[in-house]
Amino acid sequence: MNREGNNTTKRKEKNLKEGKSTRLQDAAEARYKDMTETPISSLIPRLAVPTIISMLVTALYNAADTFFVGKISTEATAAVGLCFSVMAIIQAFGFFAGQGSGNFLSRMLGARNEREAQEMAATGLALSMIIGLITASLIIFNVRKLAGFLGATSTTVDETVSYLRIIALGAPFMMGQFVINNQLRYQGSATYAMMGLLCGAVLNIALDPILIFGLDLGVTGAALATITGQITSFFVLMFGTTRGANIRLKPRNIHLNSHYIFEIINGGIPALFRQGLAAIATILLNRAAGVYGDAAIAGMSVTTRVMMFVASAMIGFGQGYQPVCAFNYGADLKGRVREGYFFCVKYGTVFLTLMSALCLIFAPNIIGFFRNDPAVIEVGQVALRCQAAALPLLGCTVITNMMLQSMGKGLKASVTASARSGLFFIPLILILPRVFGLLGVEISQAISDVLSISISIPFAYSELKKMK
Asked: What letter would DSSP give residue 393?
């Protein structure tokens, strides 16, 4: 009886495993058919809505702190604004490992190479956690020097240091959440990716007033609310990897070898350049504005967050295109890659034109919503209107960069990613304030946006022509 019972149990276990394997294969086949056959006009919007929400949630992490801290003082607003560049660098490494591993695994899924897709997913997450631990250590042990480098004044240095110390503790989780978010998105599971970030954002916003005002923790409370939200997002996203046809993250699939590291660098370096140079640009912007006082730093910080919020929606729309681009490029369906590109540029530009009009008309009200200080509004409204005027050009720049990155065109993608915040903005922010004073600080980003389109159009044309 015991032998027969054991045999029966083994047969049941075998049947369960075979049934599970069949379900996963069916789900993977359904995903392949969906990504390669669903009309572009319905596929991209379906994937884009969750990614737009995800990107807005990412922007909300910073905007929420700015809003609530803005109720304390101009100095507190400036201090948190200075720390934003460090958070942007942490996010940059998360996007680097996430998009580098994500677009490779998406191409492998399109080519029906499941094994390499699984190994890349685990390796990308492991790399981000290692980088996160190193980054946290560097920030904590050099926090006061870092605050000074960021442009903290005698009135903002203590609050800047307090915020940075706490944010550093969440660095590994922040990087990890962006890796898993991107990997889920590249697999076509944008809804799971969205829910993970949304849970953390809701918790962050709920905790901000409780910790900042209820427990009277001020800037420290804002930092605690932020990392609590990020840690929550990380674990919710981890749970999302266990659902449906999503790749399961298993330690045995980690392979930190030259093959996978190269692919992460090739696919992720454009994101690192885009996000990292944006962080460096923010540091230089704050230092340039700091010459004109805390109100100027606060005004430019609020402008940066508002524009980041609008740009995040555009980037989220483009990220809805990325898995479609990578998957179909891997499946050698280049006509769908072209069709998706023009679809996104068209509707992205329409959206940005509407946002531009709103920012031009309501600039003082928008800045005042975050910090109702006449000196802050005076600086912020000029900067916001200048950047809004160039906003419609961002659609072509963003979608071109994402197409090149998703196709594995690392060099061209890196150049287009570097143009806006690196190749053009950094020289401009170093030169224009010396010539035009505060106005030079306010107009630098707008001029950079205009110049960036001169690189995006030729690069897009060269690749689209090949696929025609």
From this structure: G
Extract the tokens encoding 405.
Answer: 């990155």
Residue of 99, 45, 70 lying closest to 302 (CA atoms): 70
Given a contact cutoff of 8 angstroms between Cβ atoms, the answer to whether 453 and 308 are in contact is no
Element (H, E) at 318: helix 294-330
Q: Which residues contact 303 (CB under 8 A, 6 or more apart)?
A: 367, 380, 383, 384, 387
Dist CA 336 CA 331 (whole Å): 10
Q: For 154, which DSSP code?
A: T
Decide: residue 334, CB within 10 A, 0-12 exposed, 13-18 middle, 19+ buried. middle
Q: What is the pLDDT of residues 196-221, one digit of tens each?
A: 888 888 888 888 888 888 888 888 88
Distances 47 to 23, 43, 197, 210, 350 between C-alpha atoms, Å: 23, 6, 15, 35, 19
DSSP string, 220-271: HHHHHHHHHHHHHHHHHHHHHTTSTTPPP--GGG---SHHHHHHHHHHHHHH
Q: Which residue has the tokens 């998957």?
A: 327
pLDDT digits (tens, 9 = 90+) for 68-104: 777 777 777 777 777 777 888 888 898 888 888 887 8
What is the spatial distance between Cα 232 and Cα 217, in angstroms, rounded to a whole number?
Answer: 21
Count CA atoms within 13 Å of residue 66 on its CB side: 29
pTM of the complete model beyond 0.70: no
